[in-house]
TrEMBL record:
This is Glycine--tRNA ligase. It is an enzyme of class 6 (ligase). PANTHER family: DNA POLYMERASE SUBUNIT GAMMA-2, MITOCHONDRIAL, GLYCYL-TRNA SYNTHETASE/DNA POLYMERASE SUBUNIT GAMMA-2. It comes from Candidatus Opimibacter skivensis. It catalyses: tRNA(Gly) + glycine + ATP = glycyl-tRNA(Gly) + AMP + diphosphate. Its EC number is 6.1.1.14. It comes from the Bacteria. Signal peptide: none annotated.
Length: 513
RNA sequence: GCGGGAGUAGCUCAGGGGUAGAGCAUUAGCUUCCCAAGCUAAGGGUCGUGGGUUCGAUUCCCAUCUCCCGCUCCA
């Protein structure tokens, strides 16, 4: 799909009530979007599919809905407080953005490399008699390098601790760091981006009242690990699943709903015996890919991507990537998180986060394999996978184009439309109404009598409705209707009593498992 | 933050120093027994915001805001 088609997809999403820009009447809010009437249906259906495949289909996976607000120490333990405060600096010439701390660390390493080079020369020169410590203090050049390094390193650590951005800028200048791309030292001010949002608990001023909005749902699972394990009498391995909002103050939120500041995750933490992590990592990798494929998603648009740089909590990580209109991007992450989180919480809280294993007769902190999928990304993946412009014959048998969302029927927002062939015929409309009133208790239906029948079909195609039931004159005689299938345009004449069964079979989640 | 693009009707866009247009959509009606764009009528816009030039600005100038795309990170 080209960029133009991506634009069309964004327009279509708005025009047909899937996604609206947030606060549009006030010119919008960057990186925040609202889900419209069809959007919320699609989103809920994705959640249902995930929840059923995780919780309902696994005896050893249970659900949880933890609060968004958590004790501040949670984020200290998780590493987010330290890892999510990036000082950033831009080079004005190359317009590249860098992490100031990374630049400085590299700069400091270069100084030490210079000193090491001198030492290496000296070692060769003096051979066995070489006294390295003595040389470090007595050789002026080496001593200067070390002194400069230690001095700047000290200032660097202090500045990072205090969040002193101007000081970081000064250090960059003193280190004479040049942009590797442009070669210039044309730097902007160093700015800090705290990737966690925070709010105030009560009216207490100062640090104590500072409360973060969770940047991931996982920590709610970890801190409830023992509560859940005990109340559900689970034995290892077992999992805890959660769907919920998370918040990240992204530097730049872009690409529609792909990267949002407020987003929703579907996470499952699988608690396992240490040493079995690779086995379960592979199991979930495979299981999750099957989950994606069973929706009928084009296999060419899905792939694994191994992480080169592992996050601070992981010892193995793979992404499930989807080919979005703007390229292959991360849709879901599967991480082997070791015992990092539970151990951290155990340490910081002073509470045991251990599992007593009756088989081995010992207690230990479980290891964790996580599957974490972005719900909004899944939504976008389903939209872009479904969005199709195609040529179909019109009333005269000529070519005409239609835009159709080819969702898996289980995900489609509206399941069935009931369409009387003519509006100005009371018998037809009354019968349509009656069918609608009967079906509406089973699944989401729409009754529509406006405009020509062809146009109504196209309207339903545009929101991805898998079935259209049309009431015509023959219906009045023998209680049959036509049922039209969205993708093939094929119509069958069936008895009214069969509609519910056919639609239910088509939209069933059962076929996905 | 820097660079680029763009803000005119619900959507897609045209226009142009003299007071705003099209197609689709919406509403009402007509027509039509199965795959969009048949007929009639109606509603809907302080042309992103503020300032300047001008008799007059949606149009020209300046500023500003917002959105979109690219640059680090992640679900």
């Amino acid at each position: 799909m080209s960029t133009d088609l991506f634009k069309d997809l964004v327009s279509h999403s708005k025009e047909y009530g899937f996604i609206f820009p947030s606060s549009e009447v006030y010119d919008g809010l960057s990186g925040v979007y609202d889900y419209g009437p069809y959007g919320v249906e699609l989103k809920n259906n994705i959640k249902t599919y995930w929840w059923r495949s995780m919780v309902q289909n696994h005896e050893n996976i249970v659900g949880l809905d933890a609060a968004i607000m958590m004790h501040p120490k949670t984020w200290k333990a998780s590493g987010h407080v330290d890892a999510f405060n990036d000082p950033l600096v831009d080079n004005k010439t190359s317009q590249k953005r860098y992490r100031a701390d990374v630049l400085i660390e590299e700069g400091l390493e270069k100084i030490m490399a210079k000193a090491e080079k001198e030492l290496e020369k000296a070692r060769k020169r003096f051979g066995d008699e070489f006294d390295e410590n003595k040389y470090k203090t007595e050789n002026q050049r080496v001593a200067d390098y070390i002194k400069q390094h230690d001095h700047l390193h000290g200032r660097f650590v202090t500045a990072m601790g205090k969040g002193d951005m101007p000081e970081l800028k000064l250090i960059i200048e003193e280190l004479e760091i040049a942009d590797p791309v442009s070669g210039t030292r044309d730097w902007t001010e160093v700015r800090q981006f705290n990737l966690m949002f925070y709010t105030q608990l009560g009216n207490i001023a100062g640090e104590e009242g500072k409360l973060y909005l969770r940047p991931e749902t996982a920590q709610g699972i970890f801190v409830n690990f023992l509560n859940v394990q005990k109340t559900t009498r689970q034995k290892l391995p077992f999992g805890i699943a959660q769907i919920g909002k998370a918040f990240r103050n992204e530097i730049i939120a872009r690409q529609f709903i792909f990267r949002m500041r407020e987003f929703e995750q579907m996470e499952m933490q699988y608690f396992i015996q240490p040493g079995t992590e690779m086995q379960w990592y592979n199991y979930w990798k495979e299981t999750r890919m099957k989950w994606h494929l069973s929706l009928g998603t084009d296999p060419a648009k899905l792939r694994f991507h191994d992480h080169d740089n592992l996050a601070h909590y992981a010892n193995a990580a793979v992404d499930v990537q989807f080919e979005f209109p703007f390229g292959f991007k991360e849709l879901e992450g599967i991480h082997s998180r070791t015992d990092f989180d539970l151990s951290s919480h155990q340490e910081l809280s002073g509470k045991k986060m251990q599992y007593f294993d009756p088989e081995t007769n010992e207690s230990y902190v479980p290891y964790v394999v996580e599957t974490s999928i972005g719900l909004d990304r899944m939504f976008l993946a389903m939209m872009s996978n479904a969005y199709t412009e195609e040529t179909v014959p019109d009333a005269d048998g000529k070519d005409s184009t239609r835009i159709v969302l080819k969702f898996h029927p289980a995900l489609a927002p509206v399941k069935c439309a009931i369409l009387p062939l003519l509006k100005n015929n009371d018998d037809l409309t009354a019968m349509g109404r009656k069918i609608f009133d009967d079906l509406k208790f089973s699944f989401l239906c729409q009754y529509d009598e406006k405009d020509a029948i062809g146009r109504r079909y196209r309207r339903q195609d545009a929101i991805g409705t898998p079935f259209c039931v049309t009431v015509d004159h023959q219906s009045l005689e023998d209680q049959t209707v036509t049922i039209r299938e969205r993708d093939t345009l094929k119509q069958d004449r069936i008895h009214i009593s069969k509609i519910q069964g056919i639609v239910e079979e088509g939209i069933s989640f059962r076929s996905l498992f």
